[in-house]
Design brief:
This protein is α+β, with helices and mostly antiparallel strands and 178 residues long. The chain contains five helices and six strands, in the order αααββαβββαβ. A hairpin with a 2-residue loop joins β4 and β5.
């Protein structure tokens, strides 16, 4: 059994799990902050209410939710101002993609998103060039037509989606691929 330590394995797995949980918490906190700009009362702001419900469903502490609401409402001093943006892209095999982000630095985010896209054979598109292929329904972007991919293209797309999802600023990604 030399070289194997159960504690070492548990510590590694816990580190990976904690990192994913932390990333999810920060993404949801940003979503709450942006929604709180339209009003800090969840009863009067449906977007904020949905974001808070989503945060509670993954067990984000109430203190973190309150802090995110205060940040969005401008009541926290020294907090960076967050803004949301939507980018459109074409992925492998012409897959249409909508990428929603929340960031404190739009220029940094766009260059990082472009870099991720180019590494995976995709590119940023002009505004409106992809959006027409989707329909907005109940807080979700649904494709009007879907595209079926072969195995290689589906693997390439999955790698791209994973890379984008790991980026802190990326909140949601929609595609027209099956």
């Amino acid at each position: 059994m030399s070289g194997h330590s159960k504690w070492s394995q548990i510590k590694h797995q816990k580190g990976v799990t904690d990192a994913k949980k932390s990333q999810a918490f920060s993404k949801l906190a940003r979503m709450i902050s942006v929604a709180a700009r339209k009003g800090e009362n969840p009863e009067m702001n449906s977007e904020l209410r949905m974001a808070v419900e989503k945060a509670k469903s993954v067990n984000i502490p109430s203190d973190n939710i309150e802090r995110a609401i205060k940040r969005g409402a401008g009541k926290l001093e020294g907090a960076a101002q967050l803004e949301s943006a939507r980018y459109e892209a074409h992925g492998p095999s012409g897959v249409a993609m909508i990428i929603n982000i929340i960031t404190d630095n739009r220029n940094r985010s766009i260059s990082e998103i472009k870099h991720i896209l180019s590494l995976h054979g995709a590119k940023l598109s002009e505004p409106g060039s992809v959006l027409w292929a989707f329909e907005y329904k109940n807080g979700k972007w649904e494709p009007k037509n879907t595209l079926e991919l072969g195995e290689n293209d589906a693997q390439s797309l999955n790698k791209l989606l994973e890379a984008l999802d790991e980026h802190d600023d990326v909140q949601e990604i929609y595609t027209n691929a099956l």
